[in-house]
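Customer escalation, tier 2.

The customer says the design service returned an amino acid string that "doesn't look like it belongs to this structure." They asked us to rerun it and document both sides in this ticket. The original structure tokens are below, unchanged.
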């Protein structure tokens, strides 16, 4: 049995009050809170184990290197990947930029295409705009259906003779929409086109097996996976890694440097220059071990129950305009209130009840344009949220509507 109260006790921040009210943290899609196991791992790394990695021969350097590199194996286990397919980054944004600079830039010529969905986060849009501006790449957009779902066949149909990459989120950070990545990847590969997946949202909500979905690149970010900010990883198939050139030069990513030449280190270190986010990556490993100990199937089942209960509570409120209701969506609800001037007003009122939600365009402006709104409020649920917190949100929204009526 999944004991959500026991899980909540693992997160010290959940016991605090905000504006005299118990904290109800519903901003998990932006960044998740940290369990005690992560906090203790980070504290221990700084207070007892810190030194720079790889280049030292003394005890602390060897210990820090061992702890730092151990995370690579943990990430590989979490994704069912090989350790030599895991490149450390500071998060999904850097991971996608790494693919754009290291793999795509040498291959794109004017007129070559990237297929995207309209629900992408800016992290999976702006790097491709760089290619559009600098190398003449063409961005081809696929819209969502009226219910917020994305038809994988539409994505496949958008692939043309000049398409060099499909770049798609596995779960929308605004709509909660999940995408059949495995089917999409099979069809794209049949056309000879590689697939990059932004798994920033999806990785935290259920099992993620890169062997099963068979994608070429996949980006995850630590701070949404209950780990530290400044941590993340890029999964890349070995065949794709062999096609990538380094785009950040410096220490640790080299084998030898002379006045006239440079020889690069072997992957994955070839793509990891300079002093890395040592402690952040150690904390990231602790977060993933915490999640795997809970069991991602159990996490997904709990969050599905919370989603279903929230949908029940919201259904009777016809003045609550929720964006997206795709089948099997994640526990993410973006909404506006009829008659309320701006989502920022809603967020401010909810905060007075101790409820933390996000208001704005959620780094998804093309999706906002497609939906015909400038901004929404977003309540996003995680592994420690409860039915009682859904009730408190619903009651606070009732108050909000009465206040602005």
């Amino acid at each position: 049995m999944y004991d959500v109260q026991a899980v909540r006790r693992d997160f010290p921040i959940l016991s605090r009050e905000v504006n005299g009210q118990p904290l109800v943290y519903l901003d998990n899609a932006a960044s998740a809170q940290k369990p005690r196991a992560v906090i203790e791992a980070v504290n221990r790394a700084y207070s007892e184990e810190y030194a720079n990695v790889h280049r030292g021969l003394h005890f602390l350097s060897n210990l820090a290197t061992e702890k730092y590199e151990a995370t690579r194996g943990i990430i590989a286990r979490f994704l069912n990947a090989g350790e030599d397919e895991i490149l450390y980054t500071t998060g999904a944004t850097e991971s996608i930029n790494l693919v754009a600079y290291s793999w795509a830039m040498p291959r794109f010529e004017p007129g070559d295409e990237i297929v995207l969905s309209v629900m992408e986060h800016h992290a999976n849009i702006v790097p491709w705009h760089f290619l559009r501006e600098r190398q003449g790449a063409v961005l081809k957009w696929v819209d969502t259906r009226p219910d917020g779902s994305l038809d994988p066949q539409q994505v496949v149909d958008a692939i043309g003779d000049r398409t060099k990459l499909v770049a798609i989120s596995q779960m929308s950070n605004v709509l909660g929409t999940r995408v059949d990545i495995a089917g999409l990847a099979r069809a794209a590969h049949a056309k000879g086109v590689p697939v990059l997946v932004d798994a920033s949202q999806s990785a935290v909500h259920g099992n993620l097996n890169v062997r099963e979905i068979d994608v070429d690149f996949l980006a995850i970010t630590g701070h949404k996976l209950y780990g530290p900010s400044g941590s993340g990883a890029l999964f890349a198939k070995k065949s794709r890694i062999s096609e990538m050139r380094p785009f950040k030069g410096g220490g640790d990513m080299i084998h030898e440097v002379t006045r006239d030449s440079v020889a690069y280190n072997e992957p994955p270190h070839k793509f990891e220059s300079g002093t890395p986010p040592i402690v952040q990556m150690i904390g990231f490993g602790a977060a993933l071990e915490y999640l795997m100990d809970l069991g991602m199937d159990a996490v997904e089942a709990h969050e599905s129950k919370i989603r279903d209960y929230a949908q029940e509570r919201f259904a009777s409120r016809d003045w609550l305009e929720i964006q997206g209701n795709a089948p099997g969506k994640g526990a993410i609800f973006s909404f506006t209130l009829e008659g309320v001037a701006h989502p920022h007003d809603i967020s401010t009122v909810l905060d007075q009840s101790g409820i933390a939600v996000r208001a704005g365009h959620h780094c998804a402006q093309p999706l906002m344009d497609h939906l015909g709104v400038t901004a929404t409020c977003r309540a996003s649920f995680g592994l420690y949220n409860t039915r009682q917190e859904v009730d408190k949100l619903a009651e606070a929204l009732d108050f909000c509507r009465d206040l602005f009526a």
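Tier 2 assessment: The sequence is consistent with the input. The mean pLDDT is 97. The chain has 14 helices and 17 strands. Sent an explanation to the customer and offered a walkthrough call.
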